Amino acid sequence: MVNKLNKSFYNTVLSQTFTPCGNYLVVGDIYGTISVFHLSKLTNQGSSITKEDQLPKNAFTIKEDVQINSLLTMKAFLVVGTVGEILGYSWKNVKTSKKPSCSWTIEIPNSKDSFDKPDVNCLVFEPENNLLFAACGDNNVYVFNIETRKEVRCFKGHKNYVHCINFCNNKLVSGGEDGLVLLWDVRGGPPVSKIEPHSRDKVARVELGPWIGGVGINDDWLLCGGGPRLSLWHLRSLNIATVFPIDDKGIHVAEVYQDRIFAGGRSNLFYQMSFNGDIITEIPTSPVTTYSAVHQDEPFQTLCIAGSSPKIDVCSNFIYKNLQLSLY
Amino acid sequence: MVKESSSLKKKRKSGTSADNEAEIDIYKKSVEFEEKEALNRPNDTDAQIYFNTCKEIRHLFAEISELKMKSGSDVRAKITEKTTEVCLLLVLLKKLNRMEKVRLVFPKEQLAAEKQKVDSINLQYQNLLYEANHLMSEYRKCFQFKSKDEHIELVPVEEFLAEAPKNLTTKFKKFDETDEMAKHELRLARLEWELQQRIHLADMCKKLEEEKKKLEGDIAERRNKLDKLGPLLSSVMEATKPVQEHLGLHIDKIQAEHKLASLLPNPLYLFYANIDAYRQVNDSGMSVEIMGDQEEASQWKELELAEDEEEEEEDMEPEAEIQEVEEIVETKKRRHRKSVHVDPLEEKKRKLLQVHPLSVQVTVTTKDGPSIKIRLSYYAKLEIVTVSSSVNIPSNITGNAAREVLSNESVLVELVEGDFGLDSPNPCTPYQLKKVGLGSFQSLVPELGYVYTWAQKMCGIDFLNKMSGSDQLSQTNVESVMKTIKKRLKSRYALAKQLEELERNVIPVLPASVDLPRTTISSLTKWSSGTYQSFCEAKFTEGLLEAELISPNDIFYKATITRDKANLQAFVVIKNDYPSIPPIFALCLNYNGTRHSQNDDNIRDMERSINVDWNHEFSNANWLLSAQIMSLCVGLDIYLETEDPGTFQQNTMYIKSTCARNRRKPFKFRNIGVGVYTQ
C-alpha cells in the first residue's frame, strides 16, 4: 500500500517572485524546493485547467529540508535566501534544469557553527548602487555589493532575528522578532529612529507577542504589523495615523503599493485597503497563514498569495481569486 | 465355195461314218470334230456365211415362187431342184447354229472359272486385312502394357549405387541415360536388390513380432505377480498397525487426509497442495486441515459427474428449460423430474448457493501471540472461494479497543489495498444472483463468508485474466499471502498490546533504539474508540478528509493529552495496513481557544512532525503507535513552553523558541547530549 499522506500535504510556501519576463512564478518552500509555474500559459488558458496544469513546470531542491526563506528577482539571476547563505541561479537553469548548479553564493558572515546558521529572512535590492540587503536570523541586516559579493556594511540593532526589511529613498526600515521597527539610513550609521508598536496600547496584542512580521514604507508613511495590529505611522512625527480594522492573528505581509495597502497573515482573508483604513477588497485564501504575496502589472496583472498550504492563489485582477496552483 | 465343199465333205464323212458299224463313235468323233472346228473358226466368217446363206435361201424361195407361178413341167423339176438346194442350205444353217452353240458354251465356262478365281482372291484379301488389324491392335495393347514393377517404390538410384553390393552395381558406374538397354538392366538390378531388401526386412519384422509377443507375455506374467502382491502388502500394513500406534507415527492420518484431498474441488485442491508444501518447507507454526465429511464429498463428486451429463443434455435445448417452469411438460419422464421440485426458484437459489462439503482450514499461529483459523470454502456454482476466520485472542489482551483490532473481520480486511472481501470478484455473480432473485452479494456475505481476492488467487482463480485453476498463480500467491497474513497477525498483536496499555492511559515503554525523550510533563489522560462519523464531524479534520486520506474502513481512536489547563485532543486513525502506513493524527489544542491545523501553523507543524516525519525503514509495529503518542506529548510540551513561557516552565531543551519568517517552533528532536530540539 502506498502512504498517501506525504510531507507535501503539509508544505508551506515562504517566498515567491516573478521572472524578469513576468511569465513565470517562482516559489520556495520549507522543504528546500524551488518550483516554477508557467503563469502566462495558465492565465491565457481560461477555464479549462486540469489538475495537471496546476502543477509546477519545473522543480528542484536546493538542500533537503532547508527552508527557502526569501527569493529575489534580478536581471540575470534568481537570488535565493536559504539558511546561512544566499545563492544566485541563472534564469535559464531555473526554468529548465532539474538539478541546476548555482552561479554564485554569498555566505552570511558570523555564522558561528553549522548548528546555528542564520536564516536569510528577507532580501531587497537597491539597483542604483547595486546593493543587496539581507535581513538575517542573527539579528543583523547585511548589505552586499552584488558585483563583488562582498559585505559592504552591516546594520546591528535588533535584539532578535529580523523578519522583514523595506526601503525607500535611502531610508531602510526593518522589523524584528523583538518587536522593534528600526529606520536606517541606507548609507550607514546607527538607527535613525526606532518605534515599538507593542508598547502602544492602541495596537499591542499581548497574546500574540511583540514580533513585527511585515513592514512597508514610502516617502511619508511607514506601515508595520505582526503580533501588534497592522498600523500606519507618520514618518516624521512617528505617530500612529491609522490602525487597520482587520481580523487577524498576526501579520506576515504588509506592503505600501501606490495609494493602497496590501496585508496578509494568519487570517482567512488577504486585504487591500486605503491609507485611511477602508477595506477595498478581501480575498479568501487557501493557506492558514499568508507568508508571501507578490504582484506585477506587466506583462499582465497578477497577484499571487501563498503560505502554509501547498496551494497558491492567483488573482489576475487583484479582486478575487481566479486560479489555484498546487505544489503536488 | 470352200465352205460348200467342206460342208459337203462333212456330209460325206458323217454319212460314211454313220453307215459304218460304230455309229456312236462317229457321232462322238463328229461332235469332237465340230467342237474343234467351231473353236478354230472365226465367228465373223461364220456370221458372213450365215448372212449369205440366208440370202441364197431367200433367192431360191423367190425363184421357187416365180416358178410356181409359171406353169410348166420343167418348172416342176426346177422347183424340185431348187427345193433341194434350199434344204442343203438349211443344213448348212443348222450346222452354223450348232457351232455357234458350242462356241457359246465354252466362254461361259471360262467366265464362271474366272469369276470363281476373283472371288477367292477377294476372300484372301479380306482375311489378310483382318489379320493386319488384329495385329495392329495387339501391337498397341503391348505398348500399353504396364508392368507390376512400376508400382513398387524403389530406393533412389544414388542410394542403390551406394548401398548395394559391388557385383550388382559395377556395371552401372558409367551409366548412360540414353541407352535403353542399360536403363532396363539397371531397373532389373534395382528390382532384384529391392526384393532382397524386402525379404530381409520381412524377416526382421517377423523376428521383432516374435520378440514383442515374448515381452507381452513377460509383462502379463509380472502383472500377475504384482496383483498377487497387493493383498499381501495390505495384510502386512494391517499387521504393522499396532506397531505404528505404539511408535506414534501418523502415516494413516496423512494418508486419509491425502485421500480426502483428492475429493476437494479443484481450486481448493490447488490451495491445499500448495499450502501443505509451503507448510512443510517454511512454516512449522502453521497447520493445514481438510474439514468436512468424506461420504458427502464423494456423493458430491458423483452428483457432479451426473450433472455434467445432464448439462450437456440441457445444452441441446437451452430454451426448453425456461419454458419448463411455466408450461406443462409433455414427456412423462420430465414430468416426473419436475414434480420433485416444489418451488423451482427456491431450488435454484439453493443450488446456486450450494457449498462444497469439504473446506480447507489453515491455522496460523504467532509465537506466544494470537492464532488465526482461516477456513476456505468453495461455492461451485458461483465459482468463488469464501473465507471465514476466527482469531484466538490471547488472555493478556482484555481491553475493548485492543480486542477490536484482533477481531475476526478486522485482521484480514484490506490485506491488499481496497480488498474488503464484500464484492464478489467473479463478474458473473451479480447476474447469477439476479437470475434467482437474490439481492446484492454484500447481503450474503454474513452467510457465505468474505470473498477476498487474495483467497481466489491462492486457489488459482484469477477473474481479471480469466485464468482458472492455474497452479502457478496459486503457487506464487500462497507464499506471499501467507507471509502477509502472518505479518498482519503479528502487527495486529503488537498493536493490540499497545492499545491494551493505552486504554489504561499508560504509554508503552519504548525500546532504547528509538530517538525520543522519555520524560514529558504532558501525559495521556484518555484513550477511547472513535468512529468515522465522529471523525468527520470534528472541524479540525477537514484538510485530511478533503485530501481523501481517510477511509471509513480505518480504525478510529480518540486520545487526550493534558498538561495543566491545556488539553490536546487527537483523533488517531489506524490504517488497516499498520505499520507500513503509520497511524494518522488529527490534532486540536484547547488552550486559550481551540487551535488546530486549520487555524494555527504550529499545530499544523506538530501534526506534520508526527504524521510524516517518520523514517519508515525503522518503524516497527511493536512501538510505532506508542512512539507517535510519546512525541505528541513532547510536541505539546514544546508548544506550550514556547507559546507561553510565563505559564509553562521550560522542561525541554531547545536553542531558539522561534525562528524564520514562519516563526517555527522546534519540534525536531536531535539526539545530541540529553536531546535538543531544533526547527
TrEMBL record, chain A:
WD repeat positions: 155-194
SUPFAM superfamilies linked: WD40 repeat-like
Keyword terms: Repeat, WD repeat
Gene Ontology BP term (one): mRNA export from nucleus
Gene Ontology CC terms: THO complex; transcription export complex
The family this protein is said to belong to: Belongs to the WD repeat THOC6 family.
Name under which the protein is recorded: THO complex subunit 6-like Protein
Native species: Tribolium castaneum (Red flour beetle)
Gene coding for it: AUGUSTUS-3.0.2_11605
Automatic annotation (TrEMBL), chain B:
Molecular function (Gene Ontology), one example: mRNA binding
Compartmental location: Nucleus
Superkingdom of the organism of origin: Eukaryota
Residue ranges of coiled coil: 198-225
Entry GO terms, CC: THO complex part of transcription export complex
UniProtKB keywords: Coiled coil, Nucleus
One GO-annotated biological process of the protein: mRNA export from nucleus
Region (Disordered): 1-20
InterPro entries: THO_Thoc5
Keyword rRNA-binding recorded: no
Family membership: Belongs to the THOC5 family.
PANTHER family in UniProt: FMS INTERACTING PROTEIN (PTHR13375), THO COMPLEX SUBUNIT 5 HOMOLOG (PTHR13375:SF3)
Protein name: THO complex subunit 5-like Protein
